[in-house]
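Give me structure tokens for this 605-residue protein.
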Amino acid sequence: MATANNDQHANGNDLFHWFLSGATELYAHVKHLNLINVFPVADGDTGTNLAVTLRAMVESAKPVESFNRTLQAISQSALEGARGNSGTIFAAYISGLAIESDSYQSVTPEEFSGIASQAVKHLYSAVENPMEGTLMSVIRDWAQYLQHNKGRFQRFNELFHSAYHYAVGLLEKTKTQLDVLRKNNVVDAGAAGFVRFLEGINRVFSGNQSIETVAEEPFTAILTEEDTSAYRYCTEALVGLRAGLAADPDAFAKTVQGELDRYGDSLIAGARGGKLKVHIHTNTPELVMEALEGYGELLSQKADDMHLQSRLRAKASGGIGLVTDSIADLPDAFLLEHNVTVLPMGVLKGTTAYLDKLTIKLRQLFRVMDEQGAYPSTSMPEPARIRAMLSAAQERFDSLIVLSVADKLSGTYQAVLKAAQALSTPGKPITVVDTRLNSGAQGLLVKHAADMIEAGASQDEILTEIQSRIPRTKIYVCLNTLYYAARGGRVPNTVGQIGMKLKMRPIMTLDKTGHGAAFGVAFSQKGLTRKIMRLVRKTMQRGGIAAYSIVHGDNLPLAKAYAQELTRITGQPPEFISEISAAVAIHSGPGTVAVCVTAKEGATV
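Here you go.
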């Protein structure tokens, strides 16, 4: 192995040892890298993203004797596991190294320097708008240093030692190269992560000897509205490409960039081994996924809310954090304003799992629902995604309250409860509540809990109040037809067929345990409306209404008409009007309107 100070060749095992040591060094500095992250978005996750990317490289790839074959394996793992802007950039550079090292069984310091320099062109092909003073420019200038000085070093320890110190100087220089870094007097976080990676490689050669390291200076970001990205979602996708695409990876990357450019910025696209990885900051992740479907099968998706991350970062840590799932229907603006973390459900279209309310929206779903073939379905969030979301929220708050969709409707409650039990500690408790509700009724509870947090209520006060409201809260869903409920499996197909022939328009609800139940039926929209208004009047007579909401499946005019009439009946406007989630729409269909009511304390619904 290239651990001895006189080694002049490196093979695949040596290379893997470099990556392992580099990753270990970076892991030790993740929190500081997150702290100094102010570019391209001050969302505080650069260290985490680089760590996830490197972990994918060293945990998935298996080293072999061949330098190139090991690098090919690392590169493929990097492409598939890359996360965030910095992680995807780093993965693109590793892909370039793999391309340029083709046929090398082992390398000398001079050969490695040439490979590292040539790999830069592939990195710059993958990134649409390279910026000076960032991870990219530090990688480029570090590689150029290797190329210009490759004749000076016969041993790898000398090469990496000298190049590392040059990179430290490059890192310090980033403080003056971008306005946001200059304002905060801080180095670029992605570049700092790369230098830590190089520091780890140097540890391979230093043995027990100490090496000079980059100091971690105390830092507090100075963030303003100007530092918030115009785009909200850090969106990523891994695509299994159709045969014949990406014969020229660099040219294909430019084609993809040209297709996606109109949707956002921070665009990175790289292809390897029949797969395409895309990273983009966008306000329309659903349109990005729609465009990528043209290249092949969507294997994985991510859409992180950078605006929420920035808001949480600017807010003093501590207090009570509120988490729910995407089945809870509430206006997006309210969720963001009150820092509510939302766990998206999966929406299965064929073999592809989309993220509810993020990478698939209602109108896209409705198009699919009317197509022949397999009907879309829902899936609960994966355990790893649940754990990651709870863990990130737990870092920001003293305690968490999770208001889940009814246990009887989805396995989400049990999955979240399991993750919460593993993460919860006496100092950082996580309480998961089965609301026994869904949609706008669940949303009413989330809104009330958020309002109580805003008013300074304690965790116990909030939980007591929410538990009190659960049996007093009802949802009445007015279906246009039984067609979608039958196709989605909510009612037996025979019942659905009979109901459709009779043009029945049922009212669906949830019973006290959270099971779906039929509540009534009408044969026209006017008949449905009369029944709903009658139900509301009865609740008013039985003690009154504390709050109500209206949700709909792409039927805002009818929802507004309901709001006008219900305001007249109750003397108060709805808490909110919102579209339903894709997870709810699969069973209810387009045009659906639901009225959700919380009775006053002592009243019945």
